[in-house]
Design a protein that fits this description.
The protein contains twelve helices and three strands; from the N terminus they run H-H-H-H-H-H-H-E-E-H-H-H-H-E-H. It is mostly helical. The chain has one domain: P1 Nuclease, CATH 1.10.575. It has a three-stranded mixed sheet with strand order 2-1-3. Bound molecules: zinc ion. Zinc ion binds next to helix 5 and helix 7.
Length: 264
């Protein structure tokens, strides 16, 4: 009797939890996206970096820790990091031309992570924390709508339809397209565009300040790719899936470059 009563109470709660969880999940570069970027980076680490990272992460892979930045979001004690997942600035300005937000942004976050990891006097626990966060943030830096305009919250206010369901431009790029593609992160990482070593090196050129501008350019293009309320589906996917895959690949290759530099 008691058991049945408890189940009756738990099931509705479980539904509420699932609904809330799926909403929260929709606002982030999907777990699959982050893990793909982590997996690509893992495959491009120098032996030295690979060893040092394995030691810090107790053998956990970059793919596994890549979602850490979002996993801690629900915990209010980590609230100060929530502005680190993105940056919004005017479409006709460069990041360096704009006064940074007092709450921080993705570039400030990445720089802080790099500084703590690089500093050999940092506590081990801090180096682990900021390493996990860095893996996440370099992924976010390559979701173009994380470098969108302030007035529409990086496309969050631009409503569109995706296969008949309401969504917005930000969420479309965060999760709708990746999740509908239906591949696991290992499948995605394996099936990214085939590129030569030279092409990979070309992608790794520059630094986070160049990469944020590149993402902003892409965001500006994507703003023009939809009309408010537009019904999107296969045609949009054909047109932009390669762009999305390339962003995952770039994120991974550049994350490897940053990590290789930090653990030289
Ligand atoms: Zn994030």
């Amino acid at each position: 009797m008691n058991k049945i009563y408890t189940m009756k109470k738990i099931i509705p709660l479980l539904f509420i939890f699932l609904i809330q969880f799926s909403f929260a999940n929709d606002m982030i570069w999907s777990k699959t996206g982050h893990r793909t970027t982590g997996e690509v980076a893992q495959n491009h680490l120098t032996r030295k970096a690979e060893k040092a990272i394995a030691k810090l992460l107790n053998g956990q892979s970059l793919a596994l820790v890549s979602t850490f930045g979002d996993d801690i979001k629900a915990d209010r004690s980590f609230k100060k990091f929530s502005a680190w997942h993105y940056v919004n600035y005017p479409a006709d300005k460069k990041y360096t031309d704009v006064e940074p937000s007092e709450f921080g942004d993705i570039i400030i976050g990445i720089q802080k992570c790099m500084a703590v990891i690089k500093d050999e006097n940092s506590l081990r626990a801090d180096r682990v924390f900021y390493l996990k966060l860095l893996v996440h943030l370099i992924g976010d830096l390559h979701q173009p709508m994380h470098v969108g305009r302030l007035e529409d919250k990086g496309g969050n206010d631009i409503q569109v339809q995706w296969f008949g369901k309401g969504t917005n431009l930000h969420r479309l790029w965060d999760s709708n397209m990746i999740n509908d593609y239906g591949m696991s992160y290992t499948e995605l990482a394996k099936n990214l565009p085939k590129i030569t070593k030279k092409e990979a090196q070309k992608i790794q050129e520059g630094n986070i300040f160049d990469w944020v501008e590149e993402s902003q350019d892409l965001a500006n293009e994507l703003y023009g790719s939809v009309e408010v309320g537009e019904k999107l589906g296969y045609r949009y996917s054909y047109e932009y899936w390669n762009v999305l895959e390339t962003q995952l690949q770039k994120g991974g290759l550049r994350l490897a470059k940053v990590l290789n530099g930090l653990f030289e």
